[in-house]
Amino acid sequence: MASSTGRPLVVVVTGTSGAGKGTLEKVLLDTTPELELAVSATTREQRPGEENGREYWFITPEKFDGLVEEGEFLEYVDLPWGARSGTLRSEIDRIQANGRVPLLDLETDGALRVQETIPGAVTIFVDAPTFDELERRLRERATESSGEIQVRLALARKQQEQKGRFNHAIVNDDVERAAKQLAEIVRGELQAAGTMSRP
Ligand code: 5GP
Question: Is any atom of ligand 1 closer than 6 Å to the C-beta of 77?
Fold first, then answer.
């Protein structure tokens, strides 16, 4: 369970909004049974196909404020399009108590906060191959209004500038290839931490 620093390992996937990190994480979770997704709480609207408790805990802004006050979040973020999302300490504790490694999906500021405060954190930045491709993917998903897409694109530019600050970076040019690379990075970190189950 411990990282090379002797602290419990936590894997953080971050990157530009729309780079496809969610898809890569699904493959990673399927192929790496040592990992379990730490489900964040969010105030944003549930998208079609999302399930409460699977992608997020969907909660009201009032409930979110209460959890902030009670110190229940390891970190949280106010996203520029109005939503708030945060990592629940209870999720990390529950996953680690089960002998597994938490996988966190965070925007870049949250990932940097976790990298600075948790010695066992390993951070992996996922980027889209080009900015045009990022825009195309966000428009294709079409779950946000065009105004929100513009805000997400502006945020993505800022996020790309932070790329060099993370432990690893990968480009999601091809899902299969990038998923394999992500799994290899995580396998290497789990092996270094002595967490990998035997084949
Ligand atoms: P989305 O609304 O598309 O699901 O997520 C928007 C952004 O919020 C993504 O970059 C995602 O990684 C990030 N995010 C989701 N949950 C959390 C969280 O608990 N904390 C932080 N800092 N970012 C989060």
Answer: yes
